[in-house]
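Good morning C.,

I know you're traveling, so I'll keep this short. The sequence:
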Amino acid sequence: MNTSMIHLEDIRKSYYMGKNVLQVLKGVSLDIHKNEYVALMGPSGSGKSTLMNILGCLDTPSSGMYVLNGQDVSKMEDNSLADVRNKEIGFVFQQFNL
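The tokens, ready to paste straight into the viewer:
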């Protein structure tokens, strides 16, 4: 049984631009446990923001599994994701967009 607060398994995210496919995340796997601090670091264009959008339930992966506090959120519809964001996640955005 997995006791991670966040469990990612083979997360992939692709964007389609006409006939071109841009693979942004290519098989990310990660476990984050309660009381653990994690920093995402990398150069511009490495997929940090895409991964954070998936972790924050603002976007869904193209494939793979994302389990948040025991709930598989990787295949949820928008209304269910909004409920998860409301109850499970807090955001501090870099730009406030007020």
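Safe travels,
E.
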